[in-house]
Amino acid sequence: MGDPKFSRSKTQTPTHPWRQARIDEEHALKEKYGLKKTGGMKEIWKERTSLRRYRNQAMKLIGRVDTSEGHFAKEKEQLISSLTRKGLLPEGSSVGDVLQIDIDQMLSRRLQSVVYRRGLAPTMRSSRQLIMHGHISIGEQKMTVPGYHILKEEEELLQYNSNSPFINENSVFRQELERFRVVETDDERDDEVEVREATEEFIDKIKSDSEDAPTIEDTIPKEEVKE
């Protein structure tokens, strides 16, 4: 039957492991977007790999003499449409605008960042924990992947999971969160919700509440589990 084949990681790692400028930049990104303290660099490398793929595809199309018809016209349209739906490009963008996308835009479209920006969590770190513990859903679909790239049309469906105790507006978490929420009017994005940094006591309380919150398995009677 031959030797089994194992899929290789498609994430490209840095060409040099000890570039101080790159390391400092990645540490700053890791803190800004609340990435894993151990292994957070890999999340950044994954986003850089996706960004490099978009840029290479755009440069290939830009290098073509004529992309107004045929296969390349369709490929250009699909690329721009896909990045627009992902919130990386505004409506009416051209293929040249793909080259202007940076790593900050890629990281800001992760589910973890959007949950924080929509005001469902007080900090980036707590946003990641809420997702990992199954407290966040898109519509009826429970989400447990902080790195999921949420689509623009999915943002309106972002909410607390129906099985989460935080779905109750009278919960202590929701009441405390309202105290730290500040709505700021922006000319470009009027629907943005910015959240103040919470105190250490509040963050510790959120962590303990998330860990003690009942899971779906806890709500199932033991008799049904045995069956």
Describe the protein in words.
The protein has helices spanning 20-32, 40-62, 70-85, 103-108, 111-117, 124-132, 172-180, 200-212, 216-219, 222-226; strands at 136-138, 141-143, 158-160, 181-182, 194-195. By secondary structure, the chain is mainly α. The protein has 2 domains: 24-106, no CATH class; 111-219, Structural Genomics Hypothetical 15.5 Kd Protein In mrcA-pckA Intergenic Region, Chain A (Roll). Strands 2-1-3 form a 3-stranded antiparallel beta sheet. A hairpin with a 2-residue loop joins strand 1 and strand 2 (141-143). Helix 2 (40-62) packs antiparallel against helix 3 and helix 5 crosses helix 6 (124-132). The longest helix has 23 residues, at 40-62.
Give me a quick take on this structure:
This protein has 227 residues and is mainly alpha-helical. It has helices at 20-32, 40-62, 70-85, 103-108, 111-117, 124-132, 172-180, 200-212, 216-219, 222-226; strands at residues 136-138, 141-143, 158-160, 181-182, 194-195.
Give the integer mean of the pLDDT values. Answer: 81
CATH class of the largest domain: Alpha Beta
Total domain count: 2
Low-pLDDT windows of residues: 182-198, 213-227
Strand order of the largest sheet: 2-1-3
Coarse shape: globular
Give me the Rg, rounded: 21 Å
Which sheet architecture does the biggest sheet show? 3 strands, antiparallel
